[in-house]
Amino acid sequence: MQRLALVTLIPTLVTATLLVAMLAPQQLMTLRGMAQNTAEAIATQAASVTAAPLRDMQRRELVRIAESISDLPHVARVQIRAADGEILADSLGRSGADNNESLTVVRDVIDSERPGQPVLGSVMVDVSLRDAIAMQQASLRHALVALVISLFVAAIIAWQAARWISAPLRRLVDAVHQLGRGDRHVEVEVTDQTEIGELQRGFNSAAMALFDVQRGMEREIEHATVELARKNAALEAASVAKARFLAAASHDLRQPLYALTLFSSALAEDERDPVRLDRIAHIQECVEALDHLFSELLDLSRLETGAMQIEIAEFPLDHVFQEVSRNFRMIAEQHGLRLIMRATNLWVRSDRTMLSRILNNLVSNALRYTSRGGVLVVARHRADGTVRVDVWDTGSGIAQEHQVRVFDEFYRVETHANEHDVGRRRGLGLGLATVQRLAELLDTQVELKSKPGRGSVFSFHLPEVPAQHIPVASGEDVSPDVSGMRVLVIDDEPAILSGIRYLLKSWGCEVAVAEDRIQALQAAEEWNVPPDIVISDLRLRDGESGLDVLAALDAHYQIDGNPPFSRLLITGETRSDRLREIMAARIPVLYKPVSPEQLREALMVAWSASRITTV
Q1: Which of 34, 84, 96, 347 has the fewest beta carbons closer than 10 A?
Q2: Which transformation does this protein catalyse, written as a reaction (predicted)?
Q3: Please, are residues 532 and 485 in contact by the beta-carbon 8 Å criterion?
Q4: CA distances (Å), 360 to each of 295, 333, 336, 355, 511, in order?
């Protein structure tokens, strides 16, 4: 609109300016010419009138003539001079005061009655140009006012014309903005049959097509959203079903496995026949392999159900290294490998159990795929306040195409370069997946670098803390001898009760067993004194909880004023709500299947802690 208005105003402005520039000088020239003619006429008339008085030198008459001429309009001054230049009469007219601009005309006075005589004198007439200049200025002012008025009128006309011309375009712009805001249907009025009308019709057609496309896309998006929600629900249901299946399978399958572990260990206690001992060793190897597989499934199910709770603490990293070394040094030696846990004085802040599980899995995985050389575990201080833990191996390595997927569940890199890659320690491909899940819970990430044929290194970072003083434990170490200990075992699986009773009796324990609360209270009645420790499963028959049975035994023994007994829970449960109950009760817990060594150590720790509390 501004451009259209400017285009309209420029011709008017140029034309008016040219007219003023051309007419003003011409008018000035006209006014000067008129003044020149007037002055010449007055001078000629004055010369004619003063010829006789000048010949007779009638000064008074000359003065009167000069005064009468000076009274004429625009006459500023009149002088009558003699032939020798003497001023005989000098009169100022009404236009003579404060007059800076005048036009002077001089005429000689000739005696018309005596032709051929010398000039009698001269008459000088000054005509004032003030009125002419005033008229010129007034005319210029009027021209400028007319110019301003004409420009104002032209501007109004130009602006209205621009609005009228640009109105269709502005309506198109508004319609485009409406489309940009997502309005449903936009249409502009077709104003004429010119190019503007063609543009309007084209816009309406495009807007209608866009509206149809938008409706089609919305229908597709709505359909895709519904389908995506359905698939997400199906995936969530599948994930929940998978977690429930793993939890149920882990619990139900561990029951007979636990019984098998107990029976195989009990058989080896009193056996002396080498042939039978060899068979029992093979059975224990199979049980250990099953235990390893179930441990992977249990860890995965506990991670997916959120059963693992983080317990952050500050501890020396070397203690975890020593524990891992005890677990795998003998396995490494059996395969002719070296396991080096580089000693360190660094302290970290983390969950000790999860960190131990991460290192156990990484070292186990490294030993499984290493045929010669060994495994090195080292910790290094870093400038960013963290500790970098590296697990190096000289194994077969991992090809580049497998490195992205080795942390996926059930993904295994098949290799035949390692003889002990198969057998009783063969995994399900869950070890590294569990490591990555545990690392995420500890707010870190496991990184992998590997070259096929040269080995691999797994690295992760932990927050470093200043080293602290560790108080030295007073007293002698607890003896692993459990003979003479009174143990009450509660479990709803008869096979487990039979196996653990046989194992504990082979250790010299006095054992009573029960399958539920009623039998447990009956066993308590048969003993004159409370048991040293009660071992109970968490989930018993008919939905009964081992915690309720322990509470009932507490109430039974408190009536007689007996001191509290030690307690230990053994479960294959992975549900987070059930495990939170155990944590709230602060009772030691073992997860099935439990090896005889773990069971013996847990018995001594729980019994010793109970005696210290009592004292």
Answers
A1: 84
A2: ATP + protein L-histidine = ADP + protein N-phospho-L-histidine
A3: yes
A4: 12, 16, 19, 9, 34
Beta bridge partners of 386: 463
> Is pLDDT of 535 > 50?
yes
**Burial zone of 233 (CB within 10 Å; 0-12 exposed, 13-18 middle, 19+ buried):** exposed
Q: Could you tell me how far CA 431 lies from the centroid of its own chain?
A: 33
CA count, 13 A, side-chain hemisphere, 166: 14
Q: What is the mean pLDDT of residues 40-47?
A: 83
Cα(456)–Cα(390) distance, integer angstroms: 10
With a cut of 80, say whether residue 325 has pLDDT above it: yes
Q: What is the DSSP string of 544-558?
A: -BHHHHHHHHHHHHH
- Alpha-carbon distance of 182 to 516, in angstroms, equals 69
Are 162 and 5 contacting, i.e. CB atoms less than 8 angstroms apart? Answer: yes
What is the distance between the alpha carbons of residues 67 and 80, in angstroms, rounded to a whole number?
11
Residue, of 280 and 462, whose pLDDT is higher:
462
The residue type found at 473 is A
Residue 558, pLDDT score = 77
CA distance 373 to 93: 135
Q: What is the DSSP string of 446-459?
A: -EEEEETTTEEEEE
β-strand partners of 108: 122
Q: For residue 115, what pLDDT band results from cuts at 50, 70 and 90?
A: low
Cα torsion angle, 534, 537, 540, 546, sign: positive
Token pair listed for 527: 């003993």
Other CB atoms within a 10 A radius of the CB of residue 263 amount to 20
Average pLDDT, the chain: 78
pLDDT at 419 over 50: no
Q: Are 205 and 215 in contact (CB under 8 A)?
A: no
Which of 180-184, 406-410, 563-567: highest mean pLDDT?
Answer: 563-567
CA distance 111 to 121: 10
Mean pLDDT of 544-548: 86
Contact (Cβ atoms closer than 8 angstroms) between residue 516 and residue 527: no
At residue 424 the predicted structure's pLDDT band, cuts being 50, 70 and 90, is very low
Distances from the Cα of 573 to the Cα of 110, 241, 250, 486, 494, angstroms = 151, 16, 8, 26, 18
Do residues 554 and 564 make contact, with C-beta atoms less than 8 angstroms apart? yes
71-87: pLDDT as tens digits: 887 788 888 888 888 88
Q: How many alpha carbons lie under 13 Å from residue 465 in its C-beta half-sphere?
A: 12
8 Å CB contact between 376 and 368:
no
Average pLDDT value for residue range 262-268: 72
Contact call for residues 589 and 318 (beta carbons, < 8 A): no
Average pLDDT over residues 481-510: 86
| 77: region left, alpha or beta (phi > 0 left; psi from -120 to 50 alpha) | beta
Q: What is the DSSP letter of 421?
A: G
Distance of CA 151 to the CA centre of its chain: 58
Fill in the amino acid letter for 460: F
- Residues 6+ positions from 317 with CB-CB distance below 8 Å: 344, 346, 347, 348, 379, 387, 389, 462
List beta partners, residue 448. 458
Residues 148-162: tens digit of each pLDDT:
887 788 788 878 877
Separation of alpha carbons 549 and 557, rounded Å: 12
